[in-house]
Design brief:
This protein is mainly beta. It has a single domain, classed as Porin (Beta Barrel). 11% of the residues lie in helices and 50% in strands. It has five helices and 21 strands. The chain has helices at residues 2-13, 46-63, 67-74, 100-105, 199-204, and strands spanning 84-96, 123-138, 141-150, 153-163, 170-178, 211-220, 226-234, 249-252, 259-262, 270-281, 284-301, 309-328, 334-352, 357-375, 382-398, 401-402, 409-421, 424-433, 437-438, 441-442, 445-456. The chain has a 16-stranded antiparallel barrel. The chain has a two-stranded antiparallel ribbon with strand order 8-9. A two-stranded antiparallel sheet has the order 19-20. Strand 15 and strand 16 form a beta hairpin. The protein is elongated, with a radius of gyration of 35 Å. The two termini are 53 Å apart. Residues 1-31 and 33-37 have low confidence and may be disordered.
Length: 464
């Protein structure tokens, strides 16, 4: 094809005998001898041009491997199969008005026996080093994994596979992953708007959220706004969960004679459903959702002491509702208001080492947080925010008798954040916590911290 096109073009520029009459010798002016043009070189012949065209085509073909060679060589190029790898490191300098030993002994009455102060020890803290892997396995599956190195050990935070081609808007996820419950649980720590979880998340879900081996089926409706339904099944065994843990227990009473035990329930033992929708109107964006967890709850403190206790409730329900509103001032500036309510209803057997008996206990607890985040500079590097936490409901009855517990437990948090680029962030945060008690006496905590977060390598966009 190239030969034919080039040959045709060359023929059009060659003189054809008999088409144009040659000018007469008398019509051509005679130039001066000094200005006479040099003798013209003879034009290349037609055969010579064809030879040059064939030589150029052979040279071009030699530079490009054949399709067979390309497909064979491609399978041995290793870097085409390497996953995207990102590294995230987090550090913080912390100052509080109480010692670390006292802070760890503080309790949130009815919710937490001992406070988790991970990442909040006085002084300089190395919080974690996170490695994230992401890759397409083949045309049918994507893989994502996160492993975390922290001072307290190594953890596979997430490792799961997502399907890519299920019909009718369905997607399947299998592995270990964060539950889609609520607004925050599915987000990794470096994406949070504040250094720590809201108080209601800490008391019900734990300081890092609920993650567990399981499977998730998601369905996205074929409409012009986001409408997604998620159903999850988890193993339900988790030492890190504040609420759900499908394990048995064995407790010996204070007299050393009476033993109380409970066998572990069958697994999987935890089921989660969530509905989320998002829509926008001009510069106004809304996200609304509702979630529910149902499963076996085992909460225990067994240390070989007369104060040992175990609570087993097979039909525990954790529910929540969320609302996020975002006003887009410009491409980089915005104001976001976000609120969530979480409640828990639980009823089961309470075993006490103090009397060696099993009592009936019921819990009806709940709380919320509300926060406001303002990204106020034109490059979008500066953010300021405030959050209010409240545990408003704390009703616990034992054998029909309501226990005297404090409610209206509060915490106030403010933060100022600066991100020089999308790969680094500095955050200054102050918190005033009025939810902690020491030996039944309220112990307010003032907490100031400076956080530094660094990200290296490709990292996918986070959800809104």
């Amino acid at each position: 094809m190239h030969s034919l096109a080039l040959t045709t073009a060359l023929l059009f520029v060659q003189p054809v005998e008999g088409t144009v009459p040659a000018p007469a010798a008398t019509d051509i002016p005679k130039p001066d001898a000094a200005a006479a043009a040099p003798e013209a070189k003879p034009a290349p012949s037609y055969d010579h041009l064809l030879q040059r065209i064939e030589a150029l085509e052979k040279a071009e073909a030699a530079r490009k491997p054949s399709p067979e060679a390309r497909s064979t060589a491609g399978t041995f190029i290793q870097n085409r199969f390497n996953p995207d790898l990102s590294i995230i490191a987090d550090f913080a300098a912390v100052s509080t008005n109480v010692s670390d030993q006292t802070a760890q002994s503080l309790a949130v009455p009815g919710f937490i026996d001992q406070s988790d102060r991970t990442g909040k020890a006085r002084g300089i803290n190395f919080n974690y080093l996170e490695l994230a892997f992401a890759s397409s396995v083949d045309p049918y599956f994507d893989f994502f994994g996160v492993v975390t190195f922290a001072p307290d050990g190594f953890d596979v935070e997430e490792a799961y596979v997502d399907t890519r081609q299920l019909p009718f808007g369905f997607q399947l996820r299998i592995g270990k992953f964060l539950s889609a419950f609520g607004r925050l649980n599915g987000l990794h720590q470096h994406v949070w708007d504040f250094y720590d979880q809201p108080l209601v998340y800490e008391t019900f879900m734990g300081t890092e959220g609920f993650k567990n081996p399981g499977a998730r089926v998601s369905w996205t409706a074929p409409v012009d706004f986001l409408l997604q339904l998620n159903f999850e099944v988890f193993q339900g065994v988790s030492d890190q969960s504040r609420t759900f843990n499908a394990v048995g227990y064995k407790l010996t009473s204070a007299d050393g004679l009476t033993a109380i035990s409970s066998t572990a329930p069958p697994v999987p033992a935890l089921y989660v459903g969530s509905l989320k929708t998002s829509f926008d109107s001009g510069n106004h964006v809304f996200l609304v959702g509702a979630s529910a967890m149902y499963g076996h709850s085992t909460q225990m403190r067994i240390q070989g002491l007369p104060t040992d206790v175990a609570f087993s409730a097979p039909g525990t329900v954790l529910y929540g509702g969320e609302l996020t509103y975002k006003y887009l001032i410009s491409s980089y500036r915005s104001v976001t208001w976000q609120s969530e309510y979480l409640g828990c209803v639980s009823s089961g057997d309470l075993a006490l080492a103090s009397d060696g008996l099993i009592h009936h206990q019921s819990k009806n607890q709940g709380g919320f947080y509300s926060q406001l985040i303002w990204r106020f500079d034109q490059p979008g590097r500066l953010r300021v925010g405030a959050r209010f936490d409240l545990l408003a409901q704390n009703s616990i009855t034992k054998d029909g008798v309501k226990q005297p517990l404090d409610n209206m437990l509060q915490r106030y948090t403010t933060m100022l954040e600066y991100s020089p680029t999308e790969f680094s962030r500095f955050r200054l945060q102050y918190a005033y916590d009025r939810s902690r008690f020491l030996d039944g006496v309220q112990k307010p905590i003032h907490e100031v911290l400076l956080q530094m977060n660094i990200a290296v390598g490709p990292h996918g966009a986070h959800s809104f």
